[in-house]
Each structure stands twice: as C-alpha cells, then as structure tokens.
Amino acid sequence: MTPPHVDADAGFFFSAGSMEALAGKIVMQYQRVAMPPQNLAKTVARYNSFVDAGEDADFGKPTPLHKIEQPPFYAAWATPVVHDARAGLRINARCRVVDTNGEIIPGLYCGGESAGGLSMHGLPRAICQGFIAGRNAAAERSNV
User: What pLDDT, in 10s, does the model give residues 46-62?
Assistant: First the structure.
C-alpha cells in the first residue's frame, strides 16, 4: 500500500517493518551524520512510555493516547527553512538602506527577505516593504 500524497521516489518518505530498519532508510544526501538506528528506537520507546504514564514528560503535550508499535512504520524527511534572519540590509521605516554609520545610502531601497530584522515574514513582508520602497523611490525620483 502506498500512502497518498507522498514523494517516496524523491527520497522524502520512508517505510519499514522495524524502527531500526526505518532509521537506516532516513538518509538525505545533504545530511551530515546518519541517524543511529538505536536513537530512533529509544525515542519511540520513550514516547510509548508516555502513553503508559498518561503524560508527556518531555514537552507537556496533551495526554498521548496511541503507542507507536504496529509496523509498518513511516517517516518523512522535513527540513526547516529559515524565513527570517537578522542578517540583511539595514533599512529605515521608508525602506531606505542605511549604512553601518546610520547614514542613508541615496537612491538605495530594500524590502522583503533581503532586508534585515524581524518585522514581518513571508509574502506580507515582501508586499508591504516592496510597496513602501517603491512609493518612496518613485517620490524621490520625481523630486530629482
């Protein structure tokens, strides 16, 4: 049986009959160190102990109800993507780029993911800051 909506052919979804075998399959070409199979088995055993205890001692999640014990076992590769970074060009409220001395660099505007700081993230950040930068750049250009 193939689970729906998974990309097994591209190496992002795995299944096996044991935790150890599953751990051996969870390998990505960019992975620095492979997962030791005993680590996955220990982690699942610990989680299953929370089901027995009726309480998640690690994260305080709501009462765990279902043990992970019946094969086949499944895993999916997921890589977090950093959306916001403190790195990037420093800008002011008008999205004008500011140099390391705090001086505005004439004619240079920036917005979205290339702007540093954590004001917003994703598409709203790009749209809002793009609008602000574009409006101010156009106003500056019309004053030249």
Answer: 999 999 999 999 998 88
DSSP character at residue 91:
B
Q: Residue 50: helix, strand or coil by DSSP?
A: helix
Longest dimension (CA), the chain: 73
Residues 65-94: pLDDT tens digits? 899 999 999 888 776 665 555 678 899 999
For 34-58, letters b (16+ CB in 10 Å) and e give ebebeebeeebeeeeebbeeeeeee
| Cβ atoms of residues 77 and 28 within 8 Å | yes
Quote the CA–CA distance of 13 and 130 in Å, as a whole number.
Answer: 37
Check whether 9 has a pLDDT greater than 70.
yes
Instruction: Give me the residue spans of the domains in the chain.
Output: 13-76, 96-142
